[in-house]
Amino acid sequence: MKSTVRFAFTLFLFLVLAAGGRKVQHFGLSKSIPSADSRTVSPGQLQLWFTQAPQEGSVTIRLVDSGGDLVGTGDPVRNSEDPQLMEVDVPSVLDAGAYTVMWRGIGDDGHVVRDEYGFEVTPES
Hints:
- The chain is of the alpha+beta class.
- It has one domain (25-121): Sandwich (Immunoglobulin-like).
- It is 16% helix and 38% strand.
- The chain has one helix and nine strands.
- It has one helix at 2-21; strands at residues 29-33, 39-40, 45-50, 60-65, 70-71, 77-78, 85-89, 97-106, 112-121.
- Mean pLDDT is 87; it is low at 15-22.
């Protein structure tokens, strides 16, 4: 009987430790170019890397200037070599000032995630 209890306890402990060792990574932004709170010259493209490959067609990326106006960009495109990277062309040179990138996407779990970050465009020399 003691060996059965010991085995059950050992199995239980193993399962608890094994489950605790795996981290569930929720869908979100892992890095970007331009990066959050950075200062840069006008970018020709926004690049957003997510913690998971977003569901097909679920990503929207908007660029907003300091006056709250939407800046025209291309549509988000998945990078052909990295499924976690979404890219958006910025077809015009941005004026110096603060900008906000607003994004939305859906990961593996099906939950919609929205967030934003800012960066500053500096005058080109």
